[in-house]
Every structure is written in structure tokens, then in C-alpha cells.
């Protein structure tokens, strides 16, 4: 077991490490207006979707670390409880960052960041035309945790209409994550980019009731060649292959190869690990359970 070092809240190291630990975080690029209709645009990475029916997002403009003052976005939401959450992709990530500058109240961050405001349909704050997804929201509640520097202000926003750029929609009105080129916030000045090389699939264990890692044979569970990810894949099957199917696999293999060279358990575990890396769970099980 790996050694750990502990950190207490309200220290510089804790605050910095927490942003590395809980990452990557999607970016809420929020447009708001004050009671006079003046626009504000600012990004927040303490943000996520929290429900579907109704569709709820929560983001948090923290109080400023310097003096505990509130941010313009929060003040605007108090005055006019609406916002638009504009999702950020790589094409606009630098402009999004520029909009985070603490300009004086009343300064147009759309103009400063070179972004295009377009009218919303159900709320007053404008949308960002460059954003691939634009979520019009009614603010249902604001929960302020305290008045201390860095304190959270949870803005609970219900999505009342979503707009998606046509270029990302297919004929079924769906999108591909390979096309969106989304970005997310990490610790310090770091971001990450969702490029094709970073996307992978993990089959949801909702279609079947997986056996679980605790039900795996001991020699498999404690194999030095199988990682925790491998065991998770193996434990996600509903039932082990039948003995007949294992013998059929062995016969077919023997018709093509000298299976005696696969007799050592370690060899078969190494082959199974490679098959699991390729997503072929069934073949991996055959190799693991085949007796030679």
C-alpha cells in the first residue's frame, strides 16, 4: 500500500492540491446582467450538472481570496436571477481566460474577450455565439456558505433551453465527443483538452449484474500481471464462460498453434492482460480459465 501525507483545510498547500485532486473540471462560462441590464461574462470551474428532471447545474463564484468581496456574477444573479452557461472548447479557451480578468463593474467582457453576444430566447443575459453549447438558465436558489475569503456561493440554475451549434449535430441530433474539442480546468494554470487520443469507453455495469472482483478465482485476483482495471473488467461479467465454450476455444487454438508453449500460468495471464487492454474480455476469460 502506498504511503500518504495528510493536509488540513485552510492552508495554501491544501487549497492548491485540492484543485489538482478534483480535476479536470468543466468550465461554466456564465453570462449575466444586473438590474439595469448591463452584461457580465466570467468563467468558473467549480461547476457541474446535478440533475436531469428538471435539468440543474450548479456553479460557484467564490468570494475573493484577497478580501472576501463578492464577484460581479454573484451580485448580478442576486439582482436578476438568470444566466447563460456557455460551454468552452479549445477554439475559445484563451478568450475565456481573458474574460476572467477582474475588470471594473460595467466593463463589457464580451468586447474585451472579442466574443459575440447573441440574444437568448427565454432569459435576458445574452449567449456566447462562439460556444458549442449555450444553456439558458433560471436561477432557482443561491446558497452562500459564509462571508469568509474563498467561501462558496452555490448558484443553482435550472436549464430552460439549450442551443447547440449545427456543425456538431448529426442527423439524429446527437454529438460525438471526438468533434467537440472541449477543455477543462485543472490545478494552477493547467487545463486539459479532450482530444481523440484521450477519449476511451468504459462499459456501464447497468445492463447486467457483474460478478464482482471478490468472486474471481484467487490466482486471477492476485495475479501480478493483472491490474485493478483488468480485474474490474473481468468482474463486470455476469457469468463465467461455460466449460464447453472454454474447451471449444482450446480446440480451435490447438488447431492453429502448439498450445503447450502456453502452459505456464504466467504466459496466459500476460496474454489475457493484453486482450483486456484491447477490450476483449471474453477472450481474456478463455485464456485465464483454459487448462493445459
UniProtKB/TrEMBL annotation:
Q: Which cofactor does it need?
A: FMN
**Mind telling me what this protein is named?**
Flavin reductase family protein
Give GO terms: molecular function aspect only. Answer: FMN binding; oxidoreductase activity, acting on the CH-NH group of donors, NAD or NADP as acceptor
- Entry superkingdom: Bacteria
From which source organism is this entry? Faecalibacter rhinopitheci
- The Flavin reductase like domain covers which part of the protein? 22-170
The entry assigns this protein to a family as follows: Belongs to the flavoredoxin family.
Task: Identify the PANTHER family for this entry.
Answer: FLAVIN REDUCTASE LIKE DOMAIN-CONTAINING PROTEIN, FLAVOPROTEIN OXYGENASE
